[in-house]
Amino acid sequence: MIPFTSGHRYFMYTGVADFRKSYDGLFGIIKTIMQSNPLSGDVYLFTNKRRNQIRMMVYDTGGLVLLSKRLDRGTFEILESQSGLLKLSISWTQLMCIMQGIKLQSIRYRKMFRPPKQSDEVTHKKM
Q1: First to last CA, the chain
Q2: Is 5 within the bounds of a domain?
Q3: Looking at the domain assignment, is residue 44 inside a domain?
Q4: Could you tell me which of 31, 38, 65, 119 has the fewest CB atoms within 10 Å of its CB?
Q5: Which residue range is the domain that position 108 belongs to?
Q6: What is the spatial distance between Cα 91 and Cα 44, in angstroms, rounded to a whole number?
Q7: Is 111 among the domain residues?
Q8: For the chain, what percentages of helix, strand and coil (3-state, to nearest 5) are there?
Q9: Are 46 and 40 contacting, i.e. CB atoms less than 8 angstroms apart?
Q10: Beta-bridge partner residues of 13
């Protein structure tokens, strides 16, 4: 099994995916509609029309891996793009909340120290 971590990049397809298409159909959505490289190692998420199923596709050494979860009751909360884009970048935390049924609107992030990026450090040293 592929361990998903905060080190991965996650992209959600905000449209409705036809799950009858399986590997080839989802691969085509990633490549043509989302305009991404399906073999990059990024994780791509798709939902069906009723929003009771979610699929994740990722390239692992030697081939594509397709993971699926279907809810017995309820639906997955899906983020919507404010600009109407069909490809939306989400964080690992958002993915875990979606999978656990936590409302994303109720998430409140506390202020935390984050070290400056290397590019920021270089900028500060030059001044």
Answers
A1: 47
A2: no
A3: yes
A4: 119
A5: 10-126
A6: 12
A7: yes
A8: 30, 25, 50
A9: no
A10: 87
